[in-house]
Amino acid sequence: MNRNGKIFHNKMVYISNNPISYCVISTFVISALLYLFPFIDRSFSHLFYVHEQGFPAARIDVLRDFRTLASHLTVALPILLALAIGLKLLYPAKPSLVSPRFSLYFIALFSIGPGLMVNGALKSFWGRPRPVNIEEFGGAWPFQPAWVIGPEGLLNRSFTSGEAATIACLLPLALFVPREWRVQVAAILGVLVAAVSLNRIAFGAHFLSDVTISIGLMLTLAAALYRVIFVDYAETFADAALEARLTAFGELWAGRRAAFRRSIRASLAGAGAAVLALLGAQRAMARRIGASFIGAEAARGMGATVLVLLSSTTGGSSVRRLSQTTPNRS
């Protein structure tokens, strides 16, 4: 083998042993190919298009149910892992239900990949029309190649595929099974990813470039996160270290929750005491007002009694004179 051949061979060995470089180069090659030859996207979508019917696969119930099932399946993993971490924080004395490093890896992958990278960045700034929306397939928008920012005003955007990105995040699961099963698990997951991606293309929702670039980006991110969490900073993100941090944070959180509950109870007790004091003051005031009213009525009654007695002893003349000379105080 000559010198150039050895250099090329060494580079290929390096790339094959460096999954990040392999994924980056693969994604770049796919992007360049579909950008330079955009007819590939249109031709592939034409396989599922019927004139005057659009994309009939989108109206097949089995395929629609498969899409729903796949969406729920992919979302279930990060939700369950987040729930496991939440339970650990609520019960810090108990061990984690799932490996903390495993949970951290996949939660970060789903959050950064489909969450921020695809739906947060690419779909927000690359206004590429979906196949069903372009003029060639009965829509109103012109075709845009991959990585070309489309016209403004389009809300339902195609680049890249969020569902393909989400299902592709399941591919690294093959790394966490016993080595003897990795090929089989990777093959099953690969078939699932391909089926979901083809389903989206058959619905006229995405081009071939949308799903392939999404998968390439997610694999690149998965390789980078794996390198950070399991290789470069393996000790920092070891299960024991993460378990200790979660336990400490859970205990701190439990203390703050207890202090918060105590403050709430104290506030409620103070408010209750204030309400009772106010009610007591109102009752006392009501009693004083009632006593004053009763006293006035009693005084009037006594005055009337005196007048009656005087009238009976003097024949009423003194009473009449007294009533005429006494000013009216009512």
From TrEMBL:
Organism domain of life: Bacteria
SUPFAM superfamilies for the chain: Acid phosphatase/Vanadium-dependent haloperoxidase
CDD domains cross-referenced by the UniProt entry: PAP2_like_6
Transmembrane segments: 20-40, 69-90, 102-122, 181-199, 211-229, 263-281
Key words of the record: Membrane, Transmembrane, Transmembrane helix
UniProt keyword Lipid biosynthesis, yes or no: no
Domain Phosphatidic acid phosphatase type 2/haloperoxidase: 105-230
Protein name: Phosphatidic acid phosphatase type 2/haloperoxidase domain-containing protein
